[in-house]
Q: What sequence folds into this?
């Protein structure tokens, strides 16, 4: 307990020691040295000077030759046990003390620096000097604390604010304005450390959603053999003379519908950001003061957001459905069929080896080169007949057996016909043409969705809530019967206001007292 008090740097330590004991073993000085090793704020008091052995004194201690202290030592003579029991008056004890020091041969020359009255004057002087030294710091600390509690008291507000309807109206107006400024990035508390408010919504649009749409690969779920089967199915009962557009439209519509999932996910992410903004606004001290009002605000605004989600999701789904229901092959950025076929032909021509005349070493014309080449082996896909038989050509496998009897029997085709062989050169070219067309159109749709989905979300969710927030709050909250309940303060606010008032009053009185000290 003693150490706790004397450890404070502003404390003056009074180390009391009996003069008839060894000073080096003084408990008071030992404790003082632990917190004041240089003796800068310790004053020694020597008691029982009158009980020392004959011929001994404390002159060396007073001179600082034993254990020096910056504030020195003061010898005193107190009442003994017999004096206390005999009820010796303090005045008589002080007189006896003065006579002792004035008549003692070792102390008579220094009698004015000995005794309890001198100790009282010395302590008073030390205290005054110490106060003057620490006074600027004390004043600064008082003013700092006074300012701190005054600001907190201001934020807590007066317990009697006035008309409840005006208070709620002002809070609704202030909240709506802050919600708008946070979305627009005009709020005064802009962070230089992290993205916040509308900037986070922009990040959702231009980073998360944009990358999510571009990550959808139209060919990760449909393979070349699937495209070949669609080409044959789209030609119907007659083999197609040209690459059909039906297979292209079927595939591209299927892949466009895959963009609905990341688009709806984007709506959900923007909703989460609006809820995040709401949480930041409701964390302000005003709403901590009125917990019922905060809960009502949260419920009304969340309900408002959810009401706006339904039309937003519908509009985004409609955008995807619009792209999927009509394939605009006349788009100026679309790679048309003739151009796609020319690109594929150029690739295949470049991949073929050039035939040369063995006599002259010159390249042969295309017709002569074709005549010189051996007839190609058929690599047409076979059909999985379900009986393990393979054949040449897409339809040739059914007749792959050389058994004339089976051929003549014209057995019916199996229940399931699937292509299971490699693509022929003609089929490879047709598949490449379809893939070029799908890639070209799909990139157009991607760009459209990346541009239109954020606009749809801004229109029906972000802008709608920003413009109609105040109207919604007034409609749901501005009811006279509920206003008083909404403005019921929390127990913490009431208790804290009382504490701050007491501290402001106490610190104000302390500041007045300190200002009088010169």
A:
């Amino acid at each position: 307990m003693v150490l706790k008090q004397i450890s404070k740097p502003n404390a003056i330590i009074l180390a009391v020691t009996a003069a008839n004991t060894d000073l080096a073993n003084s408990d008071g000085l030992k404790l003082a040295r632990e917190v004041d090793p240089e003796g800068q704020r310790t004053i020694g008091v020597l008691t029982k000077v009158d009980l020392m052995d004959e011929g001994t004194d404390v002159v060396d201690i007073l001179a600082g030759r034993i254990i020096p202290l910056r504030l020195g030592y003061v010898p005193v003579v107190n009442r003994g046990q017999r004096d206390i029991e005999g009820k010796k008056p303090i005045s008589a004890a002080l007189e006896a003390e003065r006579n002792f020091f004035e008549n003692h041969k070792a102390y008579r020359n220094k009698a004015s620096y000995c005794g309890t009255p001198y100790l009282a004057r010395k302590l008073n002087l030390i205290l005054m000097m110490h106060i003057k030294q620490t006074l600027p710091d004390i004043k600064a600390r008082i003013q700092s604390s006074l300012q701190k509690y005054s600001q907190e008291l201001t934020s807590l507000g007066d317990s009697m604010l006035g008309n409840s309807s005006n208070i709620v109206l002002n809070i609704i107006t202030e909240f709506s304005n802050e919600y708008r400024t946070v979305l627009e990035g005009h709020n005064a508390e802009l962070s230089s450390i992290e993205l916040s408010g509308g900037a986070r919504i922009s990040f959702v649009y231009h980073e998360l959603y944009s990358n999510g749409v571009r990550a959808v690969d139209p060919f990760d779920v449909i393979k070349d053999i699937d495209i070949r089967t669609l080409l044959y199915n789209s030609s119907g009962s007659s083999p197609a003379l040209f690459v059909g557009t039906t297979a292209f439209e079927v595939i591209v519509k299927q892949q466009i519908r895959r963009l609905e999932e990341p688009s709806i996910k984007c709506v959900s992410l923007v909703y989460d950001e609006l809820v995040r903004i709401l949480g930041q606004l409701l964390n302000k001290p005003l709403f901590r003061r009125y917990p019922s009002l905060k809960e009502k605000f949260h419920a009304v605004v969340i309900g408002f957001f959810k009401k706006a989600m339904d039309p937003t999701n519908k509009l985004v789904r409609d955008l995807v459905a619009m792209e999927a229901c009509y394939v605009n092959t006349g788009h100026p950025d679309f790679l048309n069929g003739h151009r796609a076929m020319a690109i594929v032909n150029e690739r295949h021509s470049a991949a073929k080896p050039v035939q040369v005349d063995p006599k002259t070493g010159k390249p042969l014309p295309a017709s002569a080169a074709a005549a010189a080449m051996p007839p190609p082996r058929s690599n047409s896909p076979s059909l999985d007949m379900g009986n393990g038989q393979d054949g040449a050509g897409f339809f040739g496998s059914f007749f792959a057996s050389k058994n004339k009897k089976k051929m003549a029997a014209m057995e019916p085709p199996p229940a399931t016909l699937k292509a299971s062989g490699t693509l022929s050169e003609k089929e490879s070219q047709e598949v490449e043409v379809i893939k070029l067309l799908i890639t070209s159109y799909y990139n157009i749709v991607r760009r459209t969705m990346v541009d239109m989905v954020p606009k749809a979300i801004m229109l029906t969710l972000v802008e709608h809530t920003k413009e109609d927030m105040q109207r919604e709050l007034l409609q749901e909250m501005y009811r006279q019967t509920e206003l008083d309940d909404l403005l019921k303060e929390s127990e913490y606010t009431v208790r804290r206001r009382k504490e701050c008032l007491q501290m402001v009053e106490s610190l104000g009185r302390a500041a007045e007292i300190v200002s009088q000290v010169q």
Summary: Confidence is low (pLDDT under 50) at residues 369-393, 395-401. Residues 324 and 443 are 14 Å apart (CA to CA).
